[in-house]
Structures are given as C-alpha cells and as structure tokens.
Specification:
single chain, mainly alpha, 2 domains, globular
Length: 175
Amino acid sequence: MDVRSVRNTESESPVRVLPRDQAREHLLAIADILAKVLDTSIRIPGTSWSIGLDPLLGLIPGIGDVIANLIGTVILGIATRLQVPRIVLTRMSLNLLINGTVGAVPIVGDLFSVWFRSHARNAVLLREAALKSDRETHADWFYVAGIIGGTVALLLLTIAFIIWLVYKLWTVVAV
C-alpha cells in the first residue's frame, strides 16, 4: 500500500477564503445587521416607530447600557479591520460615547437611544468610509471638533448648574 495515496480527509479544513470585495461586503453586511438588531429590529404595533435591543437593554439598571455599547463596539472593530480613516473611527466612538453617557440617565436615556440610534449612524459612517476612495476631509475634523467642543461645553454647564443648585440649597438650609 502506497502511503501517498491515502488521504487524511479529517485534517483538511473546508475554509473558503472570500475575494477582497466579497469579504468587505460581508463585513459591511454584518455591521448593518448588528445595527438593525440594536436600533430598529422591533416595530411598535400601530406606529411607525421601531426600537432595538439597545434601549431594551438600557432598562436594566447599571449594566444594560454598558452591554449595549459593548455589543456596538463590534461595528468599531469591523471599521478597524476595514481600515477606515481614524477620523471616522473617532466619529463612531463619539456616537457610542454620547449614546452611553445620555443612556445612563434612567428612562430619558432610553428614549434618547430610540431617537439617536448610534449603531445605525455608525453603520452608515462605516459603509460610506469603506466604499469611499478619498480619505478624511476638513469637514470631518470640523464635525469632530464641534462634537467634542459641544460635549465639553455641556459638561461644564452641567457642573456649573449643579454647583449653583447646591449653593442655593445651602443658603436656604443654612439660614
């Protein structure tokens, strides 16, 4: 018996490598499906509104928004794998940050998640960046600077309001 004629069929892997364009489209399709599950998978009967897993998970106190955002980071991972520009990754990260920060507020945050749909926004950003031949633009940088500036301004205003409120309460109680 010739050893070369015996084939070990168990050791051969049936892995099929997709061509580059098909693999890219497959990853984009995964991101689209994930965004739909997180943001718009459940239609509310009698309305044109739909919600996804993100606001439903947000109803779990403390950990729900964290879980939803961790699932949403898979889209960021896909964007990294597809080598989209860093400015797009920054915009996508900011969308998750905004959703997670506002989503931490009970009830209001969940309603915000229904409206903001950060995962769907990220899927759109990913698809546009992955299919676009040119890279980052000045408009991208302006957008990110505006978001960061607005977030910092909102944070400072919130802190100032809390300090003012504590001061007013202190003057009422101390008198």
